[in-house]
């Protein structure tokens, strides 16, 4: 008969983190303990429960099917423990709570960093960590608290909602125009030079916007950094495709054929279902959503009051 009274919360946390990370070393790093401590505690829980919790292989560690029910209970315990901890911190009014927001570089540097005070000022007890990542982050592994992207992750365990939409245009600079001229129609796009992402390093389909506008583009400069792309375009290296919050924030760039070339991308915000119940994360998520809603015209490219408008049927809608 298992001696369940010997199970400690610290031991159960280790079990949960090993399941999340899929490795002893990954769990040890998150928990900030030695890997031997993780191994010892897993062995202790398995001894108490009189069963193996994980299968080990060259690909890592995976929870056995019969362990999943135990993990669900531990997850609920973790949520309640975090909520209690948050409540106690609020009562003392001395603790600063950290919320990590992860997104792509353009959204991080070109948009959120410029508006972070509007978000942070709404909750003085919150410190925001802005994590720029070109890949999809794993909220279920607690790599971040809030994830912003151009797509719906559609992952079980996440709460995702579309909080806005942004327009994407083709941009050029006076330097480029002076040297290479400007395309006067879409038919002339193939004759021009472009800067964009390094093709083999693009892991998110929704940022392959250059392929939509000029599939056989003459790519003369590429970078995995959208800010580097913008700066190269300002220097006159080539034309560049950018969302409004990167392209319109710099007066050195202007839109090319805006009445014909306009791509739309939704902006999605995802939060772990367990994390969503925490007031700090929930409030921060709502503040971010309000910021995007307030910037609707700017994000869609309408705030510049262009004389030309998008011609129905002529613009690219994606």
Can you describe what's shown?
The chain has 318 residues and is an alpha/beta fold. It has three domains: 4-91, Orthogonal Bundle (Arc Repressor Mutant, subunit A), CATH 1.10.10.10; 94-164 and 266-295, D-Maltodextrin-Binding Protein, domain 2, CATH 3.40.190; 165-265, D-Maltodextrin-Binding Protein, domain 2 (3-Layer(aba) Sandwich), CATH 3.40.190. The protein is built from eleven helices and eleven strands. The protein has helices spanning 9-21, 24-31, 35-49, 68-92, 105-120, 174-180, 209-213, 226-234, 244-247, 279-294, 296-299; strands at 54-57, 60-63, 97-103, 126-132, 146-149, 158-173, 193-196, 218-222, 239-243, 253-256, 263-272. α1 (9-21) packs across α3.
What attributes characterize this protein structure?
single chain, 318 residues, alpha/beta, Arc Repressor Mutant, subunit A, D-Maltodextrin-Binding Protein, domain 2, nine-stranded mixed sheet, two-stranded antiparallel ribbon, 11 strands, elongated
